[in-house]
Each structure stands twice: as structure tokens, then as C-alpha cells.
Amino acid sequence: FAFMLAYTLMNGVSGILIDRLGTRAGYALFVGWWSLCALLHSLARGPLSLGVFRFLLGLGEAGNWPGAVKVVAEWFPAEERSLASGIFNSGSAAGAILAPPVIAFMLLRYGWRSSFVVVGCLGFVWLAVWLRLYRLPERAVTEAAVSRPVKLCQLLKSRFVWSFTLSKIFMDPAWYFYTFWFPEYLNHSRHFSIASIGRYAWIPFLVAGAGSAGGGLIAKAFLICGMSVGSARKSAVSIAALMMTMAIPAVLVDSSATSIAFVSVAMAGYTAGLANMLAMPADVFPAQAVASVYGLASMGAGFGGMIFMLLTGWLVDRYSYVPAFLVFGLIPMVWCLVLWTLPGWVPQD
């Protein structure tokens, strides 16, 4: 809770800071903070100190997505942004696959504190490479020189920002559900042991990594067919939302393998949709404002995620996992409906 609270609140600030400081310095600030806080976890002496360090880590985590969105906006034209976003986002899935065995090895071999030290040090290695290599392309330098800064009050008056935030409220909680609840579902309802969860729970994340790049390819295919950028994004997200409805049969089938397969498709749908969502702010706003837009929307989505997590716990305790899977199989349809109906949502065709 401490991590999610800090992450949610800071999302509203991180994008604005990155837009003001610039991508190179802003991203470096958040990664440096995140890496230091990861190291601090190794000094925890009890639940309170661990909670404090989790809160501080959440503050740093909030800079990742706004910074990444801004990098894509600076480096890629509109027709390539979905694919670029899908490729970089596949790294999240790769990390989710690699982390459990690596961390488990560190924990068993050297103790739990060592895992935080290693992760924190890796963050500083990444930071050194970033500061040495990252530069703005000439196109972005020129655009920054001629563009006027977008004020926060202008963003808060934008229909796009509010509808984009509303869509993420019905999109992101599905990912939180699979990340936080699916292993528990395998244990509670499918009677998987902890060892079995470790052997099989990585599979949906592997498929999700492929879905991330696939979402960008779908949008690019629509563009090649002659669709406008806005129509291509909307159509790709619609396919992704349909894939996410596979959560519903996942809880109804008898076979655990089939259930994992359905969840894998649903998670791939989320990442396919996310690849296009990451590209949308740059379709409407200049690169100097996209981090702020995504950060504000993610703050709203974070609060929505908290509400949906409370709802999930209530449904599981009161009934079973069946209504929970139904909810997270159906809310992507709301996300899709927002995309198609609310004004100001996507670039004008």
C-alpha cells in the first residue's frame, strides 16, 4: 500500500518535472532516486522502516512511464510510436520472467538483503549508461525551440486528458489484478504449490512480452492499409480489449493449463493496448508536454487501481474468484467504449 500510494501521488508530479527538466536530466533524477531507495531496503529493520523505504521507492518508480513516453515522442514519428512503445514495454515482461529465479537465487544464497543491493546497483549502472549515451535528436531540439510550453492549467482543461485518464482507470487495474492476484488464484483455487507457481506463473508474462510488440505491429499494419493515425490506434486497442475478455473463460475451465493459456492471451491484450496508449499523448500534444499528460492520467488510474483492488478482495472473500475474473474481463470493454465515444480522445482524423 505504501508503494502504491507514493507511486499514484507522484505520477501527477513526475511527468511535470520531466517535462520541465528535460528527458535526460529528468529521467536520470528518478532512476537515481529509485536506485538509492532500492539500496536502502537492505537496511530495513522492521515493518515500519520497510514501509518507509517502499514509499520512497514508489516516488522514484513514478518517473518511469512519463519519461519513457517522452523519449518515444522525441525520437519517433507518429506512425512508428506504437511499435517503439511496444518494443520498450516488452522489457517489463522480460524483467518479470527473469526476476523470480534471479532474486530467489540471491535470497537463498546470500540472504534477502543482497537482492536489494544488487537491484539498486544495477539501477546505477543503467544510470551511468543513460547519462553517457542519451541525447536529443535534432528534430526534437528544433521543436523544443519553437514550441511554447504547455501550462498545467491548459492540460487540466483538455478533454483529451480527462478522457485519457478515464480510459486508464478501466485499463490498468486489469494488469494489477494479474500481477497481484493471479499467483494467489493458482494457489487458492487451482491448488498449486509455491514451487508449481514458480514453474508456471512466468508463462503469461512471456506471452505478454510478445503482445507488447504485437500491439505496435497491429497499429502499423493498419497504417500501411491507409488508416489515419487515430483510427489505427483505436482499432488496435479494440482488438486488445477483445483479447482481454479471455479472462472470463479462464476462471470457468477445468484445466489449469487452459486457464493459464487464457490468462496469457488476456495479459497480451493488455500490453498490446498499452503499446498504443503510450503513443497517444504525443499524437495530441507536443513532446514538451507528453510526460505531464501521461503522469496525470496515471495518477487517476492509480486511484482507480486501488478501488478495484479493494473490490477484488471483497469479491474473493464474499464470493469467489469467478466474479473477480468477470469484472476484469469486462472492464476493458468500458476502456474501449471511452476510446470510441468520448470527444477529444485521439488525434483528429
Give a quick set of tags describing it.
mainly alpha, 349 residues
List the helices and strands and how they pair.
Layout: H1 2-21, H2 23-40, H3 47-61, H4 64-75, H5 78-110, H6 112-133, H7 138-146, H8 152-156, H9 159-169, H10 172-188, H11 194-200, H12 203-224, H13 229-244, H14 247-250, H15 256-277, H16 280-284, H17 290-318, H18 321-341
Helix pairs in contact: 1-2, 1-3, 1-17, 2-3, 2-4, 2-6, 4-5, 4-17, 5-6, 5-12, 5-15, 9-17, 9-18, 10-15, 10-17, 10-18, 12-13, 12-15, 13-15, 13-18, 17-18
Characterization of this structure:
The protein has 349 residues and is mostly helical. It is 83% helix and 0% strand. The longest helix has 33 residues.
Radius of gyration: 20 Å
Number of strands: 0
Low-confidence stretches: none
What is the H-and-E element order? HHHHHHHHHHHHHHHHHH
What is this structure, in a nutshell?
With 349 residues, the chain is an all-alpha fold.
